[in-house]
Write a structure and sequence with these properties.
The complex is a heterodimer. The longest helix of chain A has 18 residues, at 181-198. The two termini of chain A are 24 Å apart. Chain A is globular and about 60 Å long. By secondary structure, chain A is of the alpha/beta class. In chain A, the strands form 2 sheets. Chain A has a 9-stranded mixed beta sheet, with helices on both faces. Chain A contains 19 helices and 11 strands. By secondary structure, chain B is mostly beta strands. Chain B has 2 helices and 15 strands. Chain B has helices spanning 57-63, 105-111, and strands spanning 8-12, 15-19, 23-24, 30-32, 38-41, 46-47, 69-72, 84-85, 100-103, 112-120, 133-140, 146-150, 161-167, 178-182, 194-195. In chain B, 30% of the residues are buried. Classes of the chains: A alpha/beta, B mainly beta.
């Protein structure tokens, strides 16, 4: 699709508002051999129930339909695994459906549950996601992940998804990063930040206190990306409960408004045709006229440097929630940092920074909980969970984990959920002596971006405290 | 367990006719921790799938004839009429009419260049390429799309002129039969089985 019709650009109009009531997650790790998937799912569900002081039975009484995100049947070697989970959660004979959109599976699962509630089909819906990536060795895991590229045109080449992805990184690196050492260091800062924030998260798989030099000295994966620039392979589960207004306030006194949208683009980057940049509300029509002059080679859009799916998801979500400028209107974000460089690409796709200027979001200190240059709160903290680089990428659970993390800040309960000594102990993890409270003070609105591979699917979920809705929402 | 007589397939009268073995069964093995406690089992699997190329079959067939086929929208009423595609698209993504086949071999020989690339030592199971793999995304003049492939000789750079080479001897009838080398490469230097 090169041009859009008026109908295609319609801002979604839901029949009724949808609220996030609660959410919970399991421990995340590279391997959890002592637990079956349903045990992890139940861990997540129990945390969600406990969060609103309900028993599992009480919470289940509200649920009317269920949405299950699980990317790769291959990994778990169980087709129709959703039916197994549904049974073990004791939710038969309610309607349920499995959702698969690669790395965006978690976000897409919320998207489906959201529409079920917004349409009136269900007053309350469960969105649960999980992944089990420890049941094959890494080589075979890479083959399975590569099978989510085009099996005839891409997979036979190396059976390695990184190969299909890092060509985009290389293009961005050369065109917009201009192969500058300073840009390479900015990429490393993202890894340092996210691994560091993961240290404050008991759920996180890869907490690390590292420096830029550590990232730059880690083994090369695909130039310019190194091992510490890359996301994790994980096992774990996470879930949220969505409800309409009346039911949400029956279940809790503090539900959050939720808006979810989705965009897509071709599975093969090869097929992406040149087109005009669709604009977000904080951009002007002539803004990108000289993009190819400022960044030679950067005039093909989205080419190999942008994610149109992310831009479209942001376009719809901003219209739905009334967001004009995400940096001004949001208080924190959780982004899909599959690689440090794709994190920067996403800043541009979703309008945190204009195309070509993504690096300044890091270099200004805006993306930190506490701006390292001013000592003041960061303007728009990103990935305080640790993200995919520090916390986890248990694919079907990832987009849901991100939404829970954002919500806990808006609820003002982030510290409670991350400081709890009992949880650290239960997960067999040591809480660091310098554990730091990352609660974003006064957070009212936030967003999570869930993203598949080279950008075939992206969802944007915006959370808004009901007392702080924006004008101009759809 | 032997894996001799691995399955083959023919199509007769529009139906698959299979012969040989399409799967081999192996015993499970227990997985235990240090204390000897049972935690799980291995589930070996060796199975052959059957896959239809459908309308893309001419592309994969012709690689072994040293031809690079693409397609073109031939519907004058389509807004993107005349757009040329490789990867080979059976139908136009806009009007959904069946595309016309075009031979892009000469165009690729004269005007192909590297749009972007990457080099990696990492591969997944079943990889058959030598490491490091040099992925190249090749753009052609007048073509709407950018084809992914692998460079068999030299070090890639953005903008580098490249030409296609084809596995004409013992072809696999997969995308692996197509590779790229820097323009000006001598025929004597090509990998075994490949020609221009």
């Amino acid at each position: 699709m090169i041009k859009f019709s008026k109908q295609q650009l319609k801002i979604p109009q839901m029949s009724k508002p949808v609220y996030l009531v609660t959410g919970g997650m399991s421990k995340f790790d590279r391997a959890i051999p002592e637990k079956r998937t349903e045990e992890l799912v139940i861990d997540a569900f129990l945390e969600a129930a406990e969060f609103i002081k309900k028993s599992p039975e009480e919470l289940k009484e509200y649920i009317h339909s269920c949405y299950y995100g699980h990317f790769a049947d291959h990994f778990g070697d169980q087709l129709l695994g959703e039916a197994v989970i549904h049974d073990r959660l004791g939710l038969d004979p309610l309607g349920n459906v499995g959702i698969k959109t690669g790395g965006a599976t978690g976000g897409s699962t919320i998207w489906e549950a959201y529409k079920a509630v917004a349409s009136g089909y269900s007053d309350t819906a469960l969105a649960m996601g999980w992944e089990r990536m420890d049941e094959v060795p890494t080589d075979e895991g890479n083959h399975y992940i590569a099978s989510a590229a085009d099996k005839d045109w891409e997979t036979p080449m190396g059976h390695i998804y990184t190969g299909y992805y890092a060509v985009m990184a290389q293009k961005y690196w050369q065109v917009f990063g201009k192969e500058e050492e300073s840009f390479r260091r900015t990429l490393a800062e993202i890894a340092v930040k996210n691994k560091g924030y993961a240290r404050m998260n008991p759920h996180a798989q890869s907490p690390m206190k590292i420096t830029v030099e550590d990232v730059l000295n880690s083994p090369i994966v695909a130039h310019p990306l190194r091992a510490l620039d890359c996301c994790l392979m994980s096992v774990g589960a996470s879930c949220v409960i969505l409800a309409d207004e009346k039911t949400a306030y029956e279940m809790t006194d503090n539900p959050l408004l939720l808006y979810t949208s989705a965009g897509s683009h071709t599975l093969r980057v090869a097929d992406r045709r040149d087109m005009a940049i669709p604009l977000l509300p904080n951009e002007s029509p002539d803004q990108y006229k000289d993009l190819g002059v400022r960044f030679p080679g950067g005039d093909r859009y989205p080419g190999f440097t942008g994610f149109l799916a992310a831009r479209m998801a942001a376009y719809y979500a901003y219209g739905m929630a009334g967001i004009v400028d995400p940096t001004e209107d949001l208080d924190l974000v959780e982004l899909h940092d599959a690689f440090t460089i794709s994190d920067i690409q996403t800043y541009e796709d979703i309008g945190i920074r204009p195309y070509g200027e993504g690096r300044t979001y890091v270099e200004s200190g805006d993306c930190y909980h506490t701006n390292p240059f001013t000592g003041q709160p960061g303007k728009l903290p990103a990935n305080l969970s640790g993200g995919l680089i520090g916390c986890m990428h248990a694919v079907g659970a990832t987009g849901i984990m991100q939404v829970i993390e954002v919500a806990q800040h808006i609820w003002g309960r982030w510290s409670e959920m991350h400081a709890d000594e009992a949880k650290w102990k239960r997960f067999n993890r040591v809480k660091p002596d310098d554990w730091t409270d990352l609660q974003v003070k006064g957070a009212k609105r936030g967003m999570a971006i869930s993203h598949a591979g080279v950008g075939s699917h992206v969802t944007a979920t915006v959370l808004v405290h009901p007392d702080h809705q924006l004008k101009g929402r759809g | 367990m032997t894996t001799q007589n691995r399955g083959t397939v023919k199509v007769e009268n529009g139906r698959y006719r299979v012969s040989g073995n399409f799967h081999y069964a192996y015993p499970n093995e227990p997985i235990r921790d240090e204390s000897g406690k049972l935690l799980g089992i291995t589930n070996p699997a060796d199975m052959t799938h059957i896959h239809a190329y459908g309308g893309e079959a001419p592309f994969f067939e012709n690689l072994s004839n040293a031809k690079l086929l693409g397609t073109k929208c031939a519907n004058p009423k389509c807004e993107t009429y005349g757009s040329v595609y490789i990867p080979y698209r059976i139908h136009c993504p806009d009007c959904l009419m069946r595309n016309e086949e075009v031979d892009l071999t000469e165009l690729a020989r004269k005007g192909a260049s590297v749009h972007t690339f990457m080099i990696t030592e990492r591969t997944g199971a079943f990889n058959t390429l030598e490491k490091p793999i040099r992925f190249v995304n090749v753009e052609f003049e007048g073509v709407s799309t950018i084809l992914m492939g692998y460079l068999s000789i030299g070090e890639p750079t953005i903008g580098m002129k490249v030409v296609p080479i084809f596995q004409t001897k013992n072809p696999t009838f997969t995308i692996m039969d197509l590779s790229w080398v820097p323009a000006g490469t001598s025929a004597a230097d090509l990998p075994e089985g490949f020609s221009f």
